[in-house]
Amino acid sequence: MSNRLVGLLAALLPLATLTALAAEPRTSARVASPDARITVEVTTDNEGRASYAVSRDGRPVIAPSRLGLMFTDTRKFERNLAIVDQHTQAHDERWEQPWGERRQMRDHHNALRVTLAETAGPKRRFDVVFRVFDDGVGFRYNIPKQPGLDRLSIAEELTEFDIADAATAWWIPAFEWNREEYIYHRTPVDQVGQAQTPITLRTGDGLHLSIHEAALVDYSGMNLARVDGRRFRAALTPGIGAAKVEVATPFATPWRTIQIADRAGGLVESGLILNLNAPNALGDVSWVRPMKYVGIWWEMHLDRKTWASGPKHGTTTAHAIRHIDFAAANGFGGVLVEGWNVGWDGDWFGNGETFSFTRPYPDFDIEAVTRHARDKGVTLIGHHETSGHAAHYESQLDDAMALYGRLGVQAVKTGYVADAGQAKVRGDDGALHYAWHEGQAMVRHHQKVVEAAAAQHISVNPHEPVKDTGLRRTYPNLVTREGARGMEYNAWGQPGNPPEHEATLVYTRLLAGPMDFTPGIFGMDTKSGTPMATTLAKQLALYVVIYSPLQMAADLLEHYESRPEAFQFVRDVPVDWEETRALDGAVGEFAVIARRERGGDDWYLGAVTDDTARTVALPLDFLDPDRRYTAQIYRDGDGAGWRTDPHAIAIESRDVGAGDTLSIAMASGGGQAVRFIAR
Q1: So which residues are the catalytic ones?
Q2: I want to staple 60 with a disulfide (CB 3.0 to 4.6 A). Which of 164, 274, 372, 653 is the partner?
């Protein structure tokens, strides 16, 4: 061998050794948040099972928890896995919401992409991508196209969440008939059954966690099934066949999210869910219009009017015009019209086959009503109840949206009233199938509705919906939704919503996104005859506490006309915000939220409490220190309480500044609303 060749081999040997080491499977990968407090570590054990763990300040938050996927037509991703590649990346970006609870957002995270490959069998591979923020973690599976994996038939995820410490949990059951509309349980975490997300946890030392998902697109919604102790496994909503998810590769699952905060309000202020969604896909969305609205709705729940035709029919031409005139006179942007269209007569619940989304009842002149609304500067909020019959709705979807587009209807409330598992979709075989509201077929359906509405510059407010996972960032016309027990349960529920309900929603359901809760009940009448667990001041506070860019003044118009002093707050309060602060609160006990109006200097504050009357000493350091403010205060009056006198309210003004402390006194089931007018 020549000396030259020997020298060349000697030079290449270190490089070859390094290459071999780089290609050799690793057993762990690690990434930390920008502030270095939260750490994620991915490992494989001696059986090749992959897991991840999350710690904060060196203490475990999520103990080692399994990763993987199970399929209906091939071997699962679980054993014989090795880490064959890993990449980290820092990201820091600011972006602006076209509307929202805050205008400016910061997406600041460190990312880790871990490639896991099988060491035996077909040698398939997939990535797990983590994004670690200062306020939590998001992760998802990314499956590339590869031999034998042109399509995925996912039977289940093997994703786990093993809660490291004992905790209290606030949760609602999964796979039950009434979708998301349940009173929240409060139990030790090891007594949770099958739970929907978001699920909120508080450990003994006060750490708050919320487990949910982000960017749910073309996939089934995730629930949580407790396996044992504090260990949960993802439980996907069933599909219409053996597989829960059917997709082509390459494919990325929704993000699995873990929000982490030292206090309950930290969860509220988190931007993690929105940051994990893709940017605006619609372009110019200046046509999306946040607004307050009134509507022909509450009187149906009180059985004073009906959705169906007949002598008590609610949505008539004259009644709609009365609501339009009221909205215009009070600065509201919209009027909801329910029951305007043919199909409500007979057994519509869970059927939906008789609904027409273009034919009005004879006593509702849709052309005249929309013309009157345009003349008054008001839009109708249309209504499409489907009774869960998504296939029937899709057969008329384009025509229905085109009608609204032509008439200038800027928003539509959709409805899917049907027992869970009883939605109807059309499969690839052309046949009708029963489906779950959060299964993949219904996720796809809602996507079609949002896109069809966007083509006509219409915003969408779905009820009985797929849960919110932050898609409003990608599709800003998906402005709000229901997805929890709303105000209507106070009209006829037995029981109605308990006094702690709203102070629970703030830290559970509302972490997912805006809710059309429909506050503003002044009359307190109920069909059931049981008292509503609220006070008038609390009803005002809900306009700040429960965020939605569509906010309804839900009561009968005559109740607002009879209480103009209290109604003034509803007239004044905005629905679009520059910034939001969760100032104080505890899950299920009380919440104090302050928001600054978008493009302005005035602040609005809402505070609500549970059954316990309480007083909160609130520093006003969120106000501009260089300004003075007139605080217009709407508080529970003497003797107020939901059992005693729900209507007792005191309205007063004070001069305040950032160095002052305001005493927020709330009666049992009560609240307080404040407008801070900058001077």
Answers
A1: 488
A2: 164
